[in-house]
Specification:
With 183 residues, the chain is α/β, with parallel strands linked by helices. The chain has one domain: 3-Layer(aba) Sandwich (Rossmann fold). It has seven helices and six strands, in the order βαββαααβαβαβα. It has helices at residues 23-35, 56-59, 66-76, 88-98, 124-131, 155-159, 170-178; strands at 11-17, 42-48, 52-54, 107-112, 136-141, 163-166. A six-stranded mixed sheet has the order 3-2-1-4-5-6. Helix 1 crosses helix 3 (66-76) and helix 4 packs parallel to helix 5 (124-131). The two termini are 20 Å apart.
């Protein structure tokens, strides 16, 4: 009764944009989480472009080269359904339909991507529904904040639903990942 309560290890779900503009960032982040996976009770990784697929088995296969990991994901997973241009809204819809029970109250969610949706419907209500049961959720955007919501970016729209952070280097990424690991 007097023992200090130690929080359990969190579960983590990564939703990673694998389109050309951000694939190297997503690959690096997936490899970092792979290296830290003993800090989490469960890790599940989903990759998307204009479709989404679970790639946990590819990330945990021990691939240490980010480019090789990205190539395997693009060739072995069903992340491209139509034309290969980013479609966050369609990918979020598909995630909600195919994986409704993945996110729960012990889950921390990291979304990795630049939010460049090619002027498609961002499906903000779907994102809110997906994230509602999560313990925490963060969006890591590798673009400079000054570029958010320019051109085809829906960054500020998504930031109204999920806490979005500029994450352009290993230091920024380390700070955010450390917030997910209980002390």
């Amino acid at each position: 009764m007097f023992r200090k309560h130690r929080p359990g290890r969190p579960e983590i779900v990564l939703l990673c944009d694998m389109s050309g503009s951000v694939a190297s960032f997503a690959n690096f982040t997936m490899l970092l989480v792979q290296a830290l996976r003993d800090q989490f009770s469960k890790v599940r990784v989903f990759a998307f472009v204009d479709g989404i697929d679970e790639v946990t088995h590819l990330v945990t296969a021990g691939v240490a080269d980010p480019a090789a990991l990205g190539s395997r994901i693009l060739t072995e997973a069903s992340v491209i359904r139509w034309d290969g241009h980013s479609d966050y809204g369609r990918s979020l819809d598909e995630f909600a339909d195919r994986y409704p029970d993945v996110i729960g109250p012990r889950t921390s969610v990291l979304i990795l991507g630049d939010a460049r949706n090619n002027h498609g419907d961002p499906r903000l209500a779907v994102l809110a529904h997906i994230l509602r049961p999560a313990r925490r959720s963060f969006w890591l955007n590798p673009e400079r904040r000054a570029l958010w919501s320019t051109g085809d970016s829906a960054a500020h729209d998504y930031a109204s639903v999920v806490e979005m952070h500029e994450c352009r280097n290993a230091r920024q990424l380390g700070v955010l990942v450390s917030r997910l690991i209980p002390v």
